[in-house]
Amino acid sequence: MPASTELLARARTGDRDAFAELVRPHRRELHVHCYRMLGSLQDAEDVLQETLLAAWVGLGGFEGRSSVRTWLYRIATNRCLNALRATGRRRPAAEPLPVPPPEPSALGEVLWLQPFPDLLLDDLPDHDPGPEARYESREAISLAFVTAVQLLPPNQRAALLLRDVLGYRAREAADLLGVTEDTVTSALKRARATLDRTHRTGPPAPEPGSAAERELLDRFVEAFVELDVDALVAMMTDDAWVRMPPLPFEYRGTDAIRRFFSALDAHRRGIARMLPVRANRQPGWGEYRRDRTTGRLHLAGIETVALAGDRIREITRFDTATAPYFGLPRSLDG
């Protein structure tokens, strides 16, 4: 008897340890799936726990017509859809900028975005996506991709992730969502059209940890801490973005980015240290500001960059809500 069959049989008798072992190989990928659906690391963790509880309670109704993995994806996807459609979903609190910002290039529609630590991606199971997948796993976890997905209505979001990221066939995706194949196909067509307009790609980034990546990131940190706006702008692609969710302000292009960094120059003078992290398979840092009274350094935000060749194409600054997931301390000795 296969190990999974034995675990399922034991779990059906009320063995919680067997159930935990049965779902353990799927926990992390389900967490990532919920994150792609919701754009929030913390909301994704909440929905993952709801999914596992629902699976435990509903285990008696699992008839084995699909794999345990597919059954769990059905529960997780529908729980995410419920969360997206729920009224009164909490709105993230946004700390205002310390100075009036310059006129933005746009007011961003995506306010829910949080970073996903690479520390939580390292133990993803090595599942090959299904034959219908269009995105590689690294692209499908990038902040640019997750941001673009958040612009989709819930049903289109689910269809795109099930079909183009996980690679389920149309019939399988329809069964997971409890709709017809025509409904999935129509939603997917509209979702792809939106992503074609909003999801930007560019030259490949340097390999993580490579000499080329280290050289570019070292120059970025030096310019960022030293407030060298000219050097920062010189490293950006012509169509680069600066974003700050949950604040709606977005700055696109080197002229707008120059105005933004120049306007915040005085506020940024307290930044004293950048601790490296990785989020969404991208480089990032915990940003620490020095307290002028105590001399201690306090975590002020999490900064990430997206690289395109030897340039930076996107800077995203997040608040400190997800700091514990990155192992970032709230304060450091000076």
List keywords for this structure.
334 residues; Rna Polymerase Sigma Factor, Chain: A; globular; 15 helices; Nuclear Transport Factor 2, Chain: A; 46% helix; alpha+beta; 8-stranded mixed β-sheet
How would you concisely characterize the structure shown here?
The chain is an alpha+beta fold and 334 residues long.
CATH class of the domain at 211-332: Alpha Beta
> Which range does the strand content fall in?
15-25%
Taking the sheet with the most strands, its summary is: 8 strands, mixed
* Overall geometry: globular
Quaternary assembly: single chain
Our Rg estimate from Cα atoms comes to 22 Å
Poorly predicted sequence stretches spanning 5 or more consecutive residues: none
* pLDDT averaged residue by residue: 91
CATH architecture term of the domain at 211-332: Roll
GO molecular function, one term: DNA-directed RNA polymerase activity
Organism: Streptacidiphilus jeojiensis
InterPro entries: NTF2-like_dom_sf, RNA_pol_sigma-70-like, RNA_pol_sigma-70_dom, RNA_pol_sigma-G_actinobac, RNA_pol_sigma70_ECF_CS, RNA_pol_sigma70_r2, RNA_pol_sigma70_r4_t2, RNA_pol_sigma_r2
Subunit structure: Interacts transiently with the RNA polymerase catalytic core formed by RpoA, RpoB, RpoC and RpoZ (2 alpha, 1 beta, 1 beta' and 1 omega subunit) to form the RNA polymerase holoenzyme that can initiate transcription.
